[in-house]
Every structure is written in C-alpha cells, then in structure tokens.
What does this fold into?
Amino acid sequence: MKCTPGIELRDLEEMNINIDPIQAGGRLTADAMKAVIAYGDGYSVCDNCRKPFRLDYIEKPPIATFHDDLAAFVGMDEARVVPGARRGFQAVTGTYVQKGDPVLLTALSHYTEFVAIENAGGVPQEIPKDDLNIIRADAAAERIEEVSRTFGRPPALLFIDHVDYQFGNCHEVREIARAAHRYDIPVLLNGAYTVGTMPVDGKDLGVDFVVGSGHKSMAAPAPSGVLATTAERAGEVFRTTQARGDLTGRTFGIKEVEMMGCTLMGATLMGMMASFPHVRERVNRWDEELANGRIVVDALRSVEGTVVRSEMPRRHTLTRVDATASFDRVAGRHKKRGFFLSSALKKRGIVGVIPGATKVWKFNTYGLSRAQAEYVAAAYVEIAEENGLSVAPPDERA
Amino acid sequence: MKCTPGIELRDLEEMNINIDPIQAGGRLTADAMKAVIAYGDGYSVCDNCRKPFRLDYIEKPPIATFHDDLAAFVGMDEARVVPGARRGFQAVTGTYVQKGDPVLLTALSHYTEFVAIENAGGVPQEIPKDDLNIIRADAAAERIEEVSRTFGRPPALLFIDHVDYQFGNCHEVREIARAAHRYDIPVLLNGAYTVGTMPVDGKDLGVDFVVGSGHKSMAAPAPSGVLATTAERAGEVFRTTQARGDLTGRTFGIKEVEMMGCTLMGATLMGMMASFPHVRERVNRWDEELANGRIVVDALRSVEGTVVRSEMPRRHTLTRVDATASFDRVAGRHKKRGFFLSSALKKRGIVGVIPGATKVWKFNTYGLSRAQAEYVAAAYVEIAEENGLSVAPPDERA
It folds into this structure.
C-alpha cells in the first residue's frame, strides 16, 4: 500500500509485534501522533514566540513548562531539547574537550560517543569491562590514573552508559561518578536506553549531565533528545553567545552556543511533549516491563544450547542472546539457511530481528503486553521444537 | 480545542492566511502529512537498514535515491540531510575553522552563522552592505584583503546568504564566490530562504556548499535541512570517523564525523522526502509567487507614507516594510495603540504579524494563492482607509 506515490506505507508496528532492539521505546503514543499531526508544519511552535526569542521560553504551547518538567524528570536542574542524544554529547564535548584531551568512555560505549569526542578533537580512552560485561568503578579509577599519567592531565570528561546498547547491562554509575569527581572530571550519563523507559535520577547517581533520546526511549519522533545538567554546569554547557557583528555591532541575545540557538521546533518537540505525561508514568511500570522481558528470556534459555550473554537476572528489556549452539546449528542444515529463524518469526507476526541472524542477536521486549511477551516466548519454543532442538525449563538445566 | 489534555490544537494555518516571515515555506504538503503519520515512530526508517549501516544508504524507503535527487536539485554532487540549516553550518565550520581563524559573513547574516563560527572558535568578520542593503562583490573583495592583512592569513570560510532574512534581498553571490576563490576561501551559500522555494544551482553560482532548511523552505517538519557540496569538498566535510577503541580495537565503519553518524530518521526525513516531488516542482512557479507578493507590496506602497525597505522590484516573497510614517501614526492615536493593525488583520483572518508592530515589520506571501494575495492587499488598503490614511497607486506617488 502506498503512503505517497513514491513511498510505501509503513504498517510494521500495526501489523506485527516488533522486538527490534532500538525501536521499542520510540514508538509514538496516540497523543504524540495527534500532536505531530497538529504541529507538523516546520516552525509551528513559533506562533507565540516573544522576546527574548528562545524556544525554551515559549509558553503557548507550554514549552517552557515542559523544559522544567523534563529537568525534574531526570533529577537535574536544567534541561534542553536536542536533535538526538548524539547532539547532547556533542554539546558537552564541545564545551569541555580541547584538541588532544583524553576523554574516558567505556568498552561498551555507543559509537556516537566516540564521534562526539572525535568531533571536538579529543582522544577516546576506554574503561575495560569485566568478564560479565559490566563496567566497574575500580576499572574506571584505574583507567583515570593511567590516562592521567600518560597525558599529564586527567581526562576532560567521562562518558558512562547507564545501560549499554550491546548487552543491555547496568553499570556501576554511582561509584564511577564518585571516582571521577575525585579528579574533578565531569561525568556524562548516556541514558539513551533508560531515560523514558525506567526511572533515572541524575543527581542521585551523582552525574553532571544526563542525556536521553526522544526517538529511542521517549516515544517521540526523530531526531529528538534531552540534555540535562546541574545548576553548576548549566552556565558552561548552556553558555550564551558572545558573538558580535564587528561592523554592525549586532549581538544575538540569549541564544546558546552549543544549542546553536533555538533547538527542536515543530513535530519533534510537540511529539515529545505530548508523550511526556505517558512517559513519566510508564517509567513506574518498569518492573512489569522487566517481568515481560524475562518471560522471553526464560523461553530462549529453555532451548538447549542457547545462552543469554547479558547479565542475569535481566535488569533491562534489551537482551543479547547467543544461539551458536542452538538455532545456528539448525541454520547449518535448514534449506532456508540462517533465514529460517527470522522467517519463522515473521510467519508468526514477530519482526525486528535481523534477517539471517542465528548466531548472536539482540531483542527488546519494551512495550509488549504480557500476552504479547508470552506469545513471543511460545513462538521461540515452538520454532525450536519444530526444528528438533530440545526444550526444557532453564532451572532444570542449570 | 484540545489536541491532547495539555496541548491546544494548532489550527492557525487551517483557519487563517498566515504571512509570517519564517513559516511560509515550511508548511507541510498533504503528502508530507501522510508520511509523518506513517513514519512518526522514532526509528521508523531503520526497518531495512543493512550493512554498511548508514542512513543515506537505506533503500526502503528510498532514502538513498532521495539523497542523490537532493544533490541534483541544488546543483551539487553530494548531499546529506541535517537537523536544520544551522547544523549544516556547524558541520562546515567544524571542518574548516580553527580557533582564532577569521571567517567572513555579512552585515545581513543570520545569527546561526555567527553561532556556528563561535562554536568552532572562529572570529566572525562582516562584509558591509551597501545603501540599498545589498552585499556586493567589491565589498567582499575589500574585506577579504583587509581581514587577510589583519589576521596574517585569509579567512577560513565565507558565508553568503542567498537571500537574507532581514530584507529578503538577493546578493552578488556568483561574483562574491569568484572573489573568494581567488584566495582559496571556501564559500557557503545559506539558502534557508531559497532552497525549496526558488531555483538554486550551487555549481552555477560557483559555491562550495549549499545549505537549505527543510522547515523553513522545503515543506518539512523541524528540525530538517540539507547540506550539499561538490565532489571535491565532500571528502572533507563528510569525512568518516577515524576513531578506534584503544582497548577493544573497535572501529566505526563509515559514520561521518560532522554528521555525528546517522542523521535525520523518521518523521522529519520522511516529511522532507514526501514533500520533495512537490518542492522540486514548485520552485518552477517562483514567478507566480513573486507576482503574488508584488500585489501585496503594491498595496502597501499605495498607503501614504509607507516605504518598502527591501530592494525593488521585489525578487523574493519576504519583504520588509517601514510604516513609521503611516500605520504607526495611526497607532499613536488609536485606542488599541500599536495593536490596532494586527487586530484588524486578525479580524480579517490574516495572521503571522507581530502583535503591536506598526513601525517596521516583515511579511512573507509565499504559498498564497492569487486570490489570497489580493485579499491581503485589499485588507491593508481597507485598514489604512478606515484609519484615515490616504491611498493612491504607488506609480502615481513616485
């Protein structure tokens, strides 16, 4: 079915259960959809922009209030909307990282953190993960010491993923922040997989910056995100322009340099705002989300040879599975080869898995109902059994 | 009427004729609206992202083709979508401007150009405008010479607004680019008010970069825009990441540093794509747009004391009017003070003018039908007459 003459309609979410690792938290709410329709036009939110002419001061629609709510939501003092989490990273590296400065991130860091550091001319240095794929505070402290010795100065900034994109694991954020602060290193929490799906309190964690992704975890259109910080750091990362026209003498008011002036207008912002009351409420149901995720995880673990590579028990709905000794063995003898699994899932209305992947893959059950989680769990078991893999409850195997 | 419990419905465009200077070119087409609805979810366009995993390589929906079409549309070799024109500026300053480098822009440059330069640590230097508010090539050449002497090196980059936001005037772009190239200075064309509304051919103009705004002039949701360049410059501004995990050895493929990896996903991109066939066609009707704009301009000039501050005859639909000696005189004696004008327009269903502004203001007739333009023109004349201003055809006054 056509959406426009050149574009197919997208009905993937309406027609299927989608367990794609990056799409789960960014599906729009019905309210977001309404707002996107009403505020689709380019500069739609600027109807009532008055002096001092900045997006986060607009009161109609209630953008100013939303900014306050957003800061409070992540337990910080000030927040700005940004075109994606990566642009939040870029604002922070742009502020703190000079050419040649070492910057710490982790062995599980997302590529956008590397790019943000590279963009500012910094030198990314990884904190190693342990055997369980967790970033520990002692590893962070050691790396701070080592990097400080090598570069003759402490790292300019430290990135820590609240929950990483590879395993969906939780890391020792609070302890890492404490270690970093002993060296006066500002700490940026990458909450792309947590802000908007589970409770996040930046001050409680002791970080300087919380970055979230609207399109990944806040039920908002892309590109959208949030950069929040403390009162102490706000004057640095949200500093206003000092530029001046050398001939005209023009100055540019309170536009913020790292924000490039006004930030998200129109559909992206309004989608984020319309979803926000739902997002604020849904983080309190995180336990239900985890319970649903565990149903699928348990089903996969019941398939002989299947190993969950993420930490157990699961504390996030994004999970990495290693089926080299189970589904991938089937792939070796199946006429559809590796495609048998995605194809069997698709037949059952389950999508979001990479076609052909049977060795190691990730899935995300965020937003599934209990019934849908049970359906996905049963589907994996069924497919295993149909293909001659033996199935037994994981506790009987341990 | 409510859109969601906390957000009022926006029906400004449906219920009124909107002559706001920045909103006219960014109203969505019906196809864009459909695409925004179908692709509203965060990472909606990523369903079929395959190796080498970059947004502009996705074929379903036809994002790859769109990128080719977009480059051709502005007469350049390569194009990327960006979250707003300002992020295109930032990518270019990030590539070419080192701390302390002089960068040329003009006395009519938009503030986002200043901020992009400041963001990279550059020193903005203005090319003066002449008495008619036009940026001339001889002024550019002089300023290049002068700045080169002062800084001991030529400017790192030169910004020229195709049509500026203050007067909607056309400048000597081709001649300025030629002058800059004699000093090997790359030239960025700010096409925020032209790409998507009038024909733009970057190679014909001889510029190195063309930047356009999706939400300002391409009937797309915000934030969106385009950065296009020549084959020669593409390797510089679109350079791929060299980052490497020092412990894990991870590398990050062909993600582009200044793009921060993948760019516009979801609603913004798909809105832009869905509007594109219409946008490509509408630039050919620019003459009709100019004709409609002139109807309103002539009407305003027919009001005694009203002066058009933009160049005449108008070559753009954005126009600056000085009514200090006409409508503003009325404001001095009217019981609504300066609000009489916006209020009288609103009563007639005409919006997009700053409430209370009677001295100098801007309007944009882009996208009005002939009948709407005539209606707006008649409204101004009527309001003038109702308030005791005399009206005569401008040619009888000259």
